[in-house]
Amino acid sequence: MENSADISEDLSRRIDRLAARSKLTRGQIIEDALAHGRSLAWQEKWVAGVEAGLSEAENGVFATEEEIAAVLNRYGPA
Questions:
Q1: 17 belongs to a structural domain
Q2: How far apart are CA 16 and CA 24, in angstroms?
């Protein structure tokens, strides 16, 4: 069974950029999209969010106790 597909150059470049940013292989990115329904756009947004969070943490920006309490109150046990 052949393990390849024809995809556009734009899509191929996006997969390559996402692979470099996420340290995943092209195959892992494509498998995630197919197996779990996570579009390339969703994966790009998720990686950007993780990068933003890491950047904030590196700069000492963390949630306040009040922000944490608000989230716990909103999503905690009913």
A1: yes
A2: 10
End-to-end CA distance of the chain: 51
Is residue 23 included in any domain, yes or no?
A: yes
Total structural domains within the chain? 1
Residue 52 is assigned to a structural domain of this protein: yes
Q: Within a domain: residue 41?
A: yes
Q: What are phi and psi of 49, to 5 degrees?
A: -65, -40
40 burial class (0-12, 13-18, 19+ CB within 10 angstroms)?
middle
The pLDDT tens digits for 1-56 are 456 678 999 999 999 999 999 999 999 999 999 999 999 999 999 999 999 999 99
